[in-house]
């Protein structure tokens, strides 16, 4: 079983706080954010933290560009929906070792980010 839960949410969440998918299935997690990411300077990040481990960078996406952790770029993609101000993380072929708390965050300025969920 692969589990996801939101440990601290500052956004309006339509997604349940906990999601479980079977191994090999697709995972979709959405965060609705409070800013207009059509402004190209804003980037949205996804980070995860497996139980008992440190934070693991997944990737980021802006309206113009994106980048992913090399080891995860074939597993995860990030989609933006500007009309609904929604940022979605999509995971393919999820496995038990993908169980983690997944965080959505956005760039505040060049030296800090703000965690959303």
TrEMBL record:
> Which residues lie in coiled coils?
none
The UniProt record lists the keyword DNA-binding: no
Q: What does the entry give for GO biological process?
A: adaptive immune response
> Which UniProt keywords are given for this protein, alphabetically ordered?
Adaptive immunity, Immunity, Immunoglobulin
Cellular component terms per the entry's GO annotation: extracellular region; immunoglobulin complex
Q: Please, which domain of life does this record's source organism belong to?
A: Eukaryota
Domain (Ig-like): give its ranges.
1-114
Reply yes or no: does the keyword Glycoprotein apply.
Answer: no
The protein's name in its UniProt record: Ig-like domain-containing protein
């Amino acid at each position: 079983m692969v589990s996801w839960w939101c440990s601290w949410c500052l956004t309006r969440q339509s997604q349940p706080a906990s999601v479980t998918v079977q191994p090999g299935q697709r995972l979709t997690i959405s965060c609705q954010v409070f800013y207009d990411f059509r402004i190209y300077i804003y980037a949205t990040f996804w980070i995860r933290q497996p139980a008992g481990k440190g934070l693991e960078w997944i990737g980021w996406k802006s309206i113009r560009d994106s980048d992913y952790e090399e080891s995860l770029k074939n597993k995860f993609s990030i989609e933006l929906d500007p009309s609904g101000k929604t940022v979605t993380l999509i995971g393919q072929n999820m496995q038990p070792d993908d169980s983690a708390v997944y965080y959505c965050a956005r760039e505040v300025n060049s030296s800090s980010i703000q965690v959303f969920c």
